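Dig into my protein:

:::
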Amino acid sequence: MTAVLTGTGLGFQTGHAERRAVLQDVSITVQEGEMIALEGASGIGKTVLGTLLLRLRRANTAARVTWSGVDVTALSARALRPLRVRHQALLQHTGASLPPYMTVGQALLETARHVARAPDPALAAQQTAASLGIDGLLHRNPRHLSGGEQRRAGLARLLLADPVFAFIDEPDAGLDAEARLVALRLLRSRCDLGMGCLLVTHNQDLARRFADRRLLLEGGTLRAL
């Protein structure tokens, strides 16, 4: 198997006068086609780990991050840009994944056309929206969507980008039971086609059902479940 993302020696501290270690020398590898469930208490540092792996923030230790074999630890934001489209994130604040000046349909169409370079961008956008049950919302602006609808629209945009790696922070937040299963099945099917996924969840049943591995973040370190 091929590693789509690797982080070694990741550490992060918060605070100033009294610094608290959120992560301590954490290492993780996500393989092609693998879904890893990342579990742990709220506020323990799961989102921090994901943002370090995606170079959305920097570790405050001598860490190393590689994307599909490319060492991106010291790359500038400009140098990262062409690589970032294949390494996606869906964070808890889903609104950040959707341009506020576009309708949902426009955002999906732009992704299908310019990121995925789909042969038929309109069809790809429509089909992906339909698979998540949001094809009736394409005319709406993100601010007019509920939290669950924003979540599904953000996931649709991520899937349209066809990433090799995705960090997804609680994909089932704000979703009812049926929509939750639809979202996880879609992610699982993408992993079966080769996408690597690090999935933050508090839902142990979903983790057991869909993930290849389960990791617990506790006390700043990772351990297998």
Observations:
- The mean pLDDT is 92.
- The radius of gyration is 17 Å.
- Residues 164 and 195 are 5 Å apart (CA to CA).
